């Protein structure tokens, strides 16, 4: 039978790297894992809170601005290095934003003996990242744009990036219909079973007035 697996976990150690780098004894491992989750949630909540304050922008920039692609955490004995990979870092480049974020994280984590170091890294090709495309689709659907039109527009945006294939799947009460269904659109190649093929993937929930829709995006970057 068809057994599905997460494309990122399947390629871990070959084309996909870990997002957390630290060592802990078995008895302290769960604490370190929870600490990582708190740091990531704190950063995402901070960005969402500040995005609502400055939401008067153009559709193109607002739909995909300030989207975090991933957060890297590197822990040393006395320092926690946090590298935020983001599409359009306009919000975090404001004066005092990093200091405010550091205070929020230190309150959440209670890292008294450890120094916190936050770095921002802008993604070179934003529309090559599935998280940014998913956020764009979510923004369009919340503005009552047709889901097919939103999917086609997202695939058009990938033309700006150098990719070999893309697949977008949306499931749920599409168009407000009573019965939930799934719609899929694909362009180019997508070798999911080839481990050496670098494939980016994300699963993103969209809350609409009809209910929750699920978006899955696969991007075949290179081989």
From TrEMBL:
Q: Which CDD domains match?
A: KH-II_30S_S3
Cite the Gene3D superfamilies for this sequence: 3.30.300.20, Ribosomal protein S3, C-terminal domain
Q: Which InterPro entries match?
A: KH_dom-like_a/b, KH_sf_prok-type, Ribosomal_S3_C_sf, Ribosomal_uS3, Ribosomal_uS3_bac-typ, Ribosomal_uS3_C, Ribosomal_uS3_CS
The protein's UniProt keywords, in alphabetical order, are: Chloroplast, Plastid, Ribonucleoprotein, Ribosomal protein
Q: Where is the Small ribosomal subunit protein uS3 C-terminal domain?
A: 137-219
Output the GO biological process annotations, alphabetical, semicolon-separated. translation
Q: Name one GO molecular function term.
A: structural constituent of ribosome
Q: Where in the cell is it found?
A: Plastid, Chloroplast
Per UniProt, subunit arrangement is: Part of the 30S ribosomal subunit.
The similarity comment for this entry is: Belongs to the universal ribosomal protein uS3 family.
Protein name (database record): Small ribosomal subunit protein uS3c
Please report the organism this UniProt entry assigns to the protein. Cynodon dactylon
């Amino acid at each position: 039978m068809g057994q599905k697996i997460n494309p990122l976990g399947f390629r871990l150690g070959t084309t996909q790297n870990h997002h957390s780098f630290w060592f802990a004894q078995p008895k302290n491992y769960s604490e370190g894992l929870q600490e990582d989750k708190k740091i990531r949630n704190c950063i995402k909540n901070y960005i969402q809170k500040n995005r609502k304050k400055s939401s008067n922008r153009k559709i193109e920039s607002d739909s995909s601005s300030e989207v975090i692609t991933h957060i890297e955490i590197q822990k040393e004995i006395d320092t926690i290095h946090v590298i935020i990979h983001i599409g359009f870092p306009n919000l975090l480049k404001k004066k005092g934003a990093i200091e405010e974020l550091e205070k929020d994280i230190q309150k959440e984590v209670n890292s008294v003996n450890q120094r916190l170091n936050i770095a921002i890294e802008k993604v070179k090709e934003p529309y090559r990242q599935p998280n940014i495309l998913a956020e764009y689709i979510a923004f369009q659907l919340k503005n009552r744009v047709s889901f097919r039109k939103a999917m086609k527009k997202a695939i058009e945006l990938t033309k700006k990036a150098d990719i070999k294939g893309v697949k977008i799947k949306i499931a749920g009460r599409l168009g407000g219909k009573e019965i939930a269904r799934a719609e899929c659109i694909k362009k180019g190649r997508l070798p999911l079973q080839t481990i050496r093929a670098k494939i980016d993937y994300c699963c993103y929930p969209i809350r609409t007035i009809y209910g929750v829709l699920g978006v899955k995006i696969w991007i075949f970057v290179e081989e």
